[in-house]
From TrEMBL:
Annotated protein name in UniProt: Mitochondrial inner membrane protease subunit 2
InterPro entries referenced in this protein's UniProt entry, alphabetically: IMP2 (IPR037730), LexA/Signal_pep-like_sf (IPR036286), Peptidase_S26 (IPR019533)
Keyword Ligase: no
Major site of localization recorded for this protein: membrane
Organism: Gopherus evgoodei
GO cellular component: mitochondrial inner membrane peptidase complex
Keyword field contains Lipid metabolism: no
GO MF annotation terms: serine-type endopeptidase activity
Gene Ontology biological-process entries: protein processing involved in protein targeting to mitochondrion; signal peptide processing
Entry's localization field: Membrane
Domain of life, per lineage: Eukaryota
Membrane topology of the entry: Single-pass membrane protein
Coiled-coil boundaries: none
Amino acid sequence: MAQAQGFGRRYIKAFFKGFFVAVPVTVTFLDRVACVARVEGASMQPSLNPGERQVSDVVLLNHWSIRNYEVQRGDIVSLVERTFGE
């Protein structure tokens, strides 16, 4: 029984250690490098949401290129609304 409690404590300790490392890394990545966004509506047709489909497309927004001014002709640029606390 004592061995099971020791295993449980080690498991919980390892979980929280991984959690407290993974969360800041993930938040930093999504804020500085790239994030995933959903594109809805007809404003981006025909590049995104082609035809008359009412399905939204999922895109990867590359923050790194914008920070390094590597935007080229033909690139799609998106303004991202940041909401905190929702």
